[in-house]
């Protein structure tokens, strides 16, 4: 059973999707901790309700805005919790350094578009859906991928397409992408990666 650490910044809907699918979809791993870069993230409450330990590590308030120190502290917490894989579930902070090195090919992210469309620096949250609607695409979706030094640049693991509907707003599109794609492929990806790591041992 692989130990999963989740990084969040906000509401934690993707975290909730993983919590709900533990034991049914996620069978080869278990969420053992949730870390947020915001003390106001509602996802922390979701974790507490599920009995999952939480920690807040803020880049500016705790690490003086230093990305390396921020990465080092998150990495130290993940090691303390004996985490095998890290899942970014709506984590809005950039990190690098030690965390990327220590957990190479073991950090998963979910992005609300079909990469390589509408991804990279500045493309997060509603911005992604605004860009998709502005461009006029008829199909969008979500992508899970491994994390590397390039924002949204790691190897793709899974994708699921979602149709854009007439009259969509960024908000309605965001909701549909979450419901139809993100909440399904993230737990499936986590299981796939946990099971693969189990097979290597």
Describe this entry's structure for a reader:
With about 200 residues, this protein is an alpha/beta fold. The chain has a seven-stranded mixed sheet with strand order 3-2-1-4-5-6-7, sandwiched between helices. The mean pLDDT is about 95.
Keywords, separated by commas or semicolons:
201 residues; globular; single chain; alpha/beta; seven-stranded mixed sheet
Instruction: Report the total helices.
Output: 7
Stretches where pLDDT falls below 50 for ≥5 residues?
none
Structural class, from helix and strand content?
alpha/beta
What is the string of helix and strand elements? EHEHEHHEHEHEEH
Could you provide a short overview of the structure?
With 201 residues, the chain is α/β, with parallel strands linked by helices.
List the helices and strands and how they pair.
Layout: E1 2-8, H1 13-20, E2 29-36, H2 42-49, E3 54-56, H3 59-63, H4 67-80, E4 85-88, H5 97-102, E5 107-111, H6 126-135, E6 139-146, E7 156-163, H7 170-200
Parallel strand pairs: 1-2, 1-4, 2-3, 4-5
Antiparallel strand pairs: 5-6, 6-7
Helix pairs in contact: 1-7, 6-7
